[in-house]
Design a protein that fits this description.
Blueprint: H1 2-23, H2 35-44, H3 47-56, H4 92-95, H5 99-107, H6 129-139
């Protein structure tokens, strides 16, 4: 009986693992840089990657501290999963078809919701205008 239970547990775990792998993006050139790689990669990258780098850098946007993120590209292994304090960053283009409203949210979320705990990145000059534009450009791709 013990062998049957062990076999069932092993096959169950293998099935769960295989299901997890099936939902993970494949490793490719579409792997996002982690914070350390952003220091060099962002200099040569397009605006979307630059926006990603501002968003994940702890001394900049640090969006991952509060938000979970769904991306089409492979998540860097060295990055922790996103937080769950803020709403997940999914379907942003559909949720914010007006880019100006998304930008306003990043600039100062307290304007739309005075109770928001999201830092007013633009209002308090935590990020530059250009950095906010880069984050918005990246958000519009997810």
């Amino acid at each position: 009986m013990h062998n049957k239970t062990l076999t069932t547990a092993v096959f169950g775990a293998a099935a769960l693992f295989a299901g997890t792998l099936a939902t993970m993006p494949a490793a490719s050139a579409d792997t996002l840089p982690d914070e350390k790689q952003c220091k060099t990669a962002a200099k040569k990258a397009d605006n979307v990657i630059k926006g990603w780098c501002v968003a994940i850098t702890r001394r900049k946007g640090n969006c991952l501290a509060c938000h979970g993120v769904t991306t089409k590209a492979r998540w860097p292994e060295t990055l922790p999963p996103g937080g769950n304090m803020g709403p997940p960053l999914v379907a942003m283009k559909q949720r914010f078809p007006d880019t100006a409203k998304l930008r306003a949210q990043v600039y100062d979320a307290t304007k739309a919701n005075p109770q928001s705990v999201m830092p007013p990145f633009g209002k308090h000059k935590l990020l530059s205008e250009k950095e906010i534009d880069l984050i918005v450009e990246w958000l519009q791709t997810i």
